[in-house]
Amino acid sequence: MKIGTGSSGHGNGPIIRVVEPTSRTNSGGFECCFVRCCTCIHLQFLRTWPGILKVLETVISGLIQSLLINYGLRYSATIGTAFEGALTTSSACFLTSSVLLVCYIVSEKSYRLVRGSLFEMLFNGLSCFMYLSSTTYLAFATKIFLWPMYVITPGFDVYPAMTAAYLMSGVVGLVHGADAYFSFRQLAAQR
To answer: What's the pTM?
Structure first.
């Protein structure tokens, strides 16, 4: 509500103008037949850099986990603790990133509260470190233990799958690093 004086200057008293508050229906949902539907959904998040990074983190982590389980599980004893470290990292980061992604899409308030928090920055920083360390170890174990089997055995599909897994782990580690940087900037801007 705005209060102002009359334009005539005769002291007629205050003029009260009712100003409509910004409608929440314009900030969420999607257009369907000239009507905005599902206004509780915060799809605009997916058009921002943090949204794109969060989708990339979730999708790539899911792909890494799938490769590790479908191809590497049979050879986990051969690969050793490098496999366990990569699987633990991808599982933990996939679960947390997917939960955060769903929360950010469903609730704009959750996005505003959690995105600029210390949790988001620490999670992404720790995920970056875990992915980059596990990819180094998995790359070493893949080259040492699986490369000779790949050269000798025709149709040995584990080596290419584990190579793809550690390459994608390096990429998603860098994505988490970028997300940690954006989270830090947002946290610093709030203080």
So the answer is: 0.78
